[in-house]
């Protein structure tokens, strides 16, 4: 038990985007991915989330999970594979429609952490790209 433990934070996202809404999503992982993430080999920096074509689910793209040291090459995961997110269909649909309709709106991972049941969770956010003026203000803050 005990409280969760943060394993990765996407600082770039906070700089580049205005966060409109956030929610917690689970993520479908392989065994070597879980072990590598426990070793701190997760990088959310270039990650983004895309809804499936039918808008019923979302997928995490371009997130790098380093190889796990002890697993043989044969059992290794693909470092940047597209990973299914576990979230409510209604929520996936709502965000998918919003990103579909509004240019400049996207979904990104903000944070990854193990919850008290030791399951990896992502804090994901519906965001809008900041313009240059907004970015300068953020940097000054």
Descriptive report:
This is SsrA-binding protein. Keywords: Cytoplasm, RNA-binding. It holds the Pfam family SmpB. By secondary structure, the protein is of the alpha+beta class. The protein has a single domain (6-129), classed as Beta Barrel (Small Protein B, Chain: A). The chain is 26% helix and 37% strand. The protein has helices spanning 11-16, 31-38, 89-101, 132-140; strands spanning 5-9, 17-27, 42-43, 48-51, 58-61, 64-65, 83-86, 105-114, 120-129. Strands 1-8-9-2-7-5-4 form a 7-stranded antiparallel sheet. Strands 3-6 form a two-stranded antiparallel sheet. It is globular. The termini are far apart. The relative contact order is 0.28. The mean pLDDT is 90.
Question: What secondary-structure arrangement, pairings included, does this model have?
Answer:
Elements: E1 5-9, H1 11-16, E2 17-27, H2 31-38, E3 42-43, E4 48-51, E5 58-61, E6 64-65, E7 83-86, H3 89-101, E8 105-114, E9 120-129, H4 132-140
Keywords:
141 residues; alpha+beta; Small Protein B, Chain: A; two-stranded antiparallel ribbon; globular; RNA-binding; SsrA-bd_prot
* Strand residues, percent: 35-45%
- How large, in whole angstroms, is the Cα Rg? 16 Å
Strand order of the largest sheet: 1-8-9-2-7-5-4
Mean pLDDT: 90
What would you give as the CATH superfamily? Small protein B
InterPro entries: SmpB (IPR023620), SsrA-bd_prot (IPR000037), SsrA-bd_prot_CS (IPR020081)
Keywords: Cytoplasm, RNA-binding
Pfam families: SmpB
Protein name: SsrA-binding protein
Explain briefly what this protein structure is:
One of its GO terms (cellular component) is cytosol. This protein is α+β, with helices and mostly antiparallel strands and 141 residues long.
């Amino acid at each position: 038990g005990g409280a969760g433990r943060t394993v990765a934070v996407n600082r770039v996202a906070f700089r580049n985007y205005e966060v409109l809404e956030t929610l917690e999503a689970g993520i479908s992982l392989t065994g070597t991915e879980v072990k590598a993430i426990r070793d701190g080999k997760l990088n959310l920096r270039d990650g983004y989330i895309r809804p499936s074509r039918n808008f019923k689910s979302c997928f995490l793209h371009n997130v790098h999970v380093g190889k796990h040291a002890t697993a043989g090459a044969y059992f290794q995961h693909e470092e940047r594979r597209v990973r299914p997110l576990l979230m409510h269909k209604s929520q996936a649909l709502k965000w998918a429609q919003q990103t579909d309709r509004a240019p400049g709106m996207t979904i990104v991972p903000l944070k990854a952490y193990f919850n008290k049941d030791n399951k990896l969770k992502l804090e994901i956010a519906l965001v809008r790209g900041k313009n240059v003026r907004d970015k300068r203000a953020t940097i000054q803050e």
